[in-house]
Design goal:
Elements lengths: L5 E8 L3 H12 L5 E3 L13 E2 L9 E2 H14 L3 E3 L3 E5 L5 E5 L4 E9 L3 E3 L5 H5 L5 E2 L2 H4 L7 E5 L3 H11 L4 E5 L9 H8 L4 E4 L2 E7 L6 E6 L5 E4 L3 E4 L3 E3 L30 E3 L11 H21 L4
């Protein structure tokens, strides 16, 4: 591309359910959207195996295939999709300025942020090897596949407590692995865990290895106080140590909460910067589902359309 700045009506940063849905709506509204996929085209769903809870797929669908369907629908309406990362932004003047990782400068009348969030992992080799073969970071997404089985959850915060209590409704037993001698979860969530008879809490416990070849067969854990190493037979291993929103390049520019999720006006996708909208998991630290991300992607495109119409840009 040339060194001359490119002007676009609507720039979408990110390519998960939120970004692609925003693109579909923006393209149909004649906003001629340009979408930068980022380093993980399709987002978290590309590392999700079976998706059974998204409407419209009665037989379920593989996560990568679902994102391919979203992408193709966006392409059908002539979204300009670019497989590159946005590495820098300047929202101090109109139009808003962004730069790709190759240095291409874009001036955008409206910007939709859909950069998503990434699950935090333990960093074990076996964790990556058994991803989608029993290892998951989302009980709501994958718990159904483990009904009537024993599973383990690692974590000590509200996320881990929620995942454990959710799984306890489906599974015969849930082993909650807590690194310290207490949980970080809120009092009410701790009480729910304690009052659920088929959740067994393993205090002072760290995960050494997830066991299995073609699927999870167990987890090897170590008690940090006694040094005792034991193996727990499970078929599912859920990592619930939190998520990290992919919002670093907007720090100091867009208002965020303490966990770096972008703040939006309640019920809208407006950020504190005029003409910049946020959707999907970059601004949702509560639901984090494909269907809710897609919903806010729709909202962001509609908000951007009304904004551009009011400015006489489209």
């Amino acid at each position: 591309m040339s060194n001359t700045p490119e002007h676009v009506h609507c720039l979408i940063i990110g390519s998960g359910p939120a970004g692609y849905t925003a693109a579909i709506y923006a393209a149909r509204a004649n906003m001629k959207p340009v979408l930068y996929t980022g380093k993980e085209p399709g987002g978290q769903l590309t590392i999700t195996n079976e998706v059974e809870n998204y409407p419209g797929y009665p037989e379920g669908v593989l996560g990568p295939q679902m994102m391919e369907d979203f992408k193709n629908q966006a392409l059908r309406f002539e979204t300009d999709i670019r497989y590159e990362l946005i590495s820098k932004v300047d929202f101090s003047s109109f139009p808003r300025k962004v730069w790709s990782e190759t240095g291409h400068e874009i001036h955008a009348d409206a910007v939709i942020i859909a950069t998503g969030a990434s699950a935090k992992w333990l960093g074990l080799e076996s964790e990556q090897k058994l991803m989608n073969k029993g290892v998951s970071a989302c009980a709501v997404c994958d718990g159904f596949f483990f009904r009537g089985q024993e599973v383990a959850v690692v974590g000590a915060g509200d996320t881990a407590a929620e995942e454990a209590t959710y799984l306890a409704k489906l599974c015969t037993k849930v082993h909650l692995l807590v690194r310290r001698d207490q949980m970080r979860a809120s009092k009410i969530m701790q009480e729910r865990v304690m009052n659920t008879p088929n959740i067994q809490i393993h205090w002072n416990t760290v995960t050494e290895e997830i066991l299995g070849e073609e699927g999870v067969t167990g987890v090897r854990v170590k008690n940090v106080q006694t040094g005792a190493v034991t193996e727990i037979p499970v078929t599912g291993f859920f990592v619930a140590i939190g998520h990290k929103p992919n919002t670093e390049i907007f720090e100091g520019i867009i208002d965020m909460d303490d966990n770096k999720y972008i703040k939006t006006v309640p019920g809208r996708t407006y950020t504190n910067v005029e003409g910049v909208f946020a959707c999907g998991d970059a601004q949702d630290n509560y639901y984090r589902q494909a269907v809710t991300a897609a919903g806010t992607g729709c909202m962001a495109a509609l908000d951007a359309e009304r904004y551009l119409a009011a400015k006489g840009k489209i």
